[in-house]
Amino acid sequence: MSKKVLEISQSEYISYFLNSLIVKSNEKRIIVPISQIDTVLVSNPRCNISVPLLNELVAQNVNIIICDSKFKPTVQISPIQGYYSNKNFLNQINWSKDFKGFVWREIIKTKIVNYTKLIYYLDITSEEEIDKLIKYYESVLINDRSNCEGHAAKLSFKILYGANFSRDDENIINTFLDYGYTVLMTYVSRSIIKNGLDNRIGIFHKSFNNHFALSCDLMEPLRALIDKLVYTHIYIYGKKDFILFKKDLFCMFEEKIAIKNTKLSVNEYIDKIVKSVINNNLICEDFIIEWS
User: Fold this and answer.
1) Using an 8 Å Cβ cutoff, are 191 and 274 in contact?
2) Angle at 19 between CA 17 and CA 25, to 5 degrees
3) pLDDT confidence of residue 155
4) Highest mean pLDDT range out of 78-87, 194-203, 219-228?
5) Which helix (H) or strand (E) holds 75?
6) Nearest-CA neighbor of 199 among 41, 111, 82?
7) Strands 13-17, 48-49: parallel, antiparallel or unpaired by DSSP?
8) 220 is known to lie in a ligand binding site
9) Which residues of 238-276 are buried (b: 16+ CB within 10 A; e: fewer)?
10) 18: exposed, middle or buried (C-beta count within 10 Å: 0-12, 13-18, 19+)?
11) What is the layout of strands, in order, in the sheet containing 73-77?
12) How is the chain split among helix, strand and coil, in percent rounded to 5?
């Protein structure tokens, strides 16, 4: 049974009782077993959360996302220790430059091919531009030294959203993309912590101020999933309803996608990527999404 995504948009207090999350709102009392919850999204900036509830949600690996007064996700609550052993972390701090260079190449190849296949599936461009994307994919080097990722991303955005589109603009497309990418990062972060890695130690992303460096790395092959959802809402459905987009976004993580003749939920796909890095067997061909 698929677990629930619970959004707290009106209640001003949620608490814990008998393995359940208790929502109090307008003298009503709603009880949700924590075992049935995948994610808690707190979008009411006035909501108070009890400490026992936070501890139990973290203990049961529930993704906890808190939004600011503009309803943008700004906080993810994660356990300090999410794994029974330090083995994976000890291996992580000893990742070599060669290992990181190889993994980053495979991540970028996967990202580019997933976007290429998405654009081909949507049938929104010429064979010439598809060939350009394929060339970028074939040209990715160790550490992506020639920045094929940047060139492919620029072309992909142009094809999807138009020649004048810029990620710096304030518009509905970027609002949807920013929200979607941020939520995606929290799901990747949860898997990273669950598998005993440290989010602050990245493969490519490096910054003293980025506490989610590894999430930023490992989410790259999945970004096309967010773009597919955004493109579908705006250009196929012709809708700019943020509430509907948000609902479909969270449902997406339990939906099945086709990978190498098998079907995995997006959550399972995320776990598979994280474990492949741990096991040093991340190969692009194992993570290509067959769109449908």
Assistant:
1) yes
2) 45
3) 98
4) 219-228
5) strand 73-77
6) 82
7) parallel
8) yes
9) eeeeeeebbebbbebbbeebebeeeebebbbbbbebbeb
10) exposed
11) 4-8, 37-42, 63-67, 73-77
12) 50, 15, 35
The first and second tokens of residue 96, run together, are 């070599």
- What pLDDT, on a 0 to 100 scale, did the predictor assign at position 78? 86
* Residue 282 and residue 273 in contact, taking contact as beta carbons nearer than 8 Å: yes
Residue 131 parent element (H or E): helix 127-138
Considering only CA atoms, which of 96, 67, 63 is closest in space to residue 203?
96
- Ligand-binding site membership of 233 (annotated): no
Q: Does the annotation place 205 within a ligand binding site?
A: yes
* DSSP state at residue 36: G
- Give the Cα separation of 257 and 259 in Å (integer): 6
Q: Read off the pTM.
A: 0.91
Q: How many residues comprise the chain?
A: 292
Catalogue all structural domains in the chain, each as residue range(s) with its CATH number. 4-77 (3.100.10.20), 87-290 (1.20.120.920)
